[in-house]
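Local shape tokens

___
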Amino acid sequence: MTITYKSRDEVPLSEKWNLEDLYVNLQKWEDDLQLIEVLANELKTFDGAINNGNQLLQFLTTQEKLSYKFNHLYAYAMLKVDENTRDTTSQSLLERARALSVKVSSATSFFLPFLLSLEEHTLKKYIAEEQ
């Protein structure tokens, strides 16, 4: 037997995913959005300024924190849209997350070319400095 619902409101709560596992409320999402913007600006400052192991470690640590937060933020926005594709508030969250993605990519675009340009012995020296 197939059950058909006319709206999401008719779907039993037990059959819906719980987005509170990602964010308990929209304010927490907004807080992470602001934090990610701050972290992205922080990462920009490393462009041309990684000259030792400590600076490389700081960049990678900040990038990892940003990536973790951004993945949660983006997943939440995508799932909110999937709950109801007609909801303009959810669509707005996803658009803001996409715009933030561009900002993050821009802030970190220097890193891969930088890393590839390092001599192997320099990279090994940087790693050894932080062990």
The mean pLDDT is 94. The domain at 30-129 is CATH 1.20.140.70 (Butyryl-CoA Dehydrogenase, subunit A; domain 3). The CA atoms of residues 46 and 58 lie 9 Å apart. The chain has one domain: 30-129.
